């Protein structure tokens, strides 16, 4: 029987783990599928568009030709004026004029654009040009942004649990180390002896059976009263509770023997897991300085790796780019030359946004506490003082 029960227990534990991980995997998988579908859609719409020469582009080429001729005629004269004119001319240029749609809107470029849309980063160097592409971009963001925030909240619960448990374990270890330093050898040995004596005095007796209670009551007339009616009643209730315990095991066997009922019970647990999203994040209480330190270390690691394939960036520029990305500001002043490689960094972006999201949540909680203290202090100041009248 033991050999047959072990595989069954292994299967049940695997099922429990699967249904516990299922909600989190469902959110992440749906976000990945949503990104891939958006990449296919935008690469088909924007990548296959016809390139037409607009009137603005023709005007730009005409002015550029005029400036080039003026420079050839007067090579040394009015050098500063020429630089100002050429700078003003190129400020009016549209980057779309100099980019091939097939190169910019391939699958990886479109996937990078979709990631910047539902993460609300929006660098500005890639954007839809066609009218249908703009309409679909608005519709895509309308459903993608809530899905992204749902993934952030769900994964934020996991990170909040890990951070809170790690911080609590660190505090426990810190208190143990401080206690061992403050406590001397003689006092610690005395405290341990007292604890061992106190623990040795505590004896947990199992509840007696009815026959043992009746046998113990046979010598009541000859000796002092050993058990009173209240004690006898409590023993009987404890014994009755023990007798009712196997009935619960039978009900559990009934759950396991009936697959339909067990499936309904499992599905109810999965639904409850969906309802618990965001609860652990609300319970998180760690110092804000610790979260700032985690963000600094997290961005520094990426800033040290990113210049390996982005040659136009150094450590400081990469640190600035990662901070602007994770905070979803996305100015677009620092551009990526190889977005294909950065797509493999998408997991880093999602986890980093979760860490920043947790830090913002902690900062928001601290600001609320500060506002409450300020308001209560101002209210106490404005309260009229009680006047004491003489009798």
Mean pLDDT: 75
- Structural category is mainly alpha
Number of strands: 0
Q: In percent, how helical is the residue content?
A: over 70%
Please tally the helical runs, counting DSSP H or I stretches of 4 or more residues: 15
Gyration radius, rounded:
36 Å
Low-confidence stretches: 220-227, 246-256
Distance between the termini: 90 Å
Q: Outline the biggest β-sheet.
A: none
Secondary-structure element string:
HHHHHHHHHHHHHHH
Q: What is the 3D shape?
A: elongated
Strand proportion: under 5%
Subcellular location: Membrane
Membrane topology: Multi-pass membrane protein
Keywords: Ion channel, Ion transport, Membrane, Potassium, Transmembrane, Transmembrane helix, Transport
Protein name: KCNKI protein
Task: Give structural notes.
The structure is a single chain. By secondary structure, the chain is mainly alpha-helical. It has a domain at 19-144. The protein is 75% helix and 0% strand. The chain contains 15 helices and no strands. The radius of gyration is 36 Å and the shape is elongated.
How is the secondary structure organized here?
Layout (H helix, E strand, L loop, with lengths): L1 H46 L7 H19 L5 H13 L9 H4 L2 H12 L12 H52 L2 H17 L8 H7 L12 H29 L1 H17 L3 H5 L4 H18 L9 H12 L12 H5 L2 H37 L9
Helix pairs in contact: 1-5, 1-6, 1-10, 2-3, 6-15, 12-13, 12-15
Summarize the structure.
This protein is mostly helical.
Characteristic key phrases:
single chain; 391 residues; mainly alpha; 15 helices; 75% helix; 0% strand; elongated
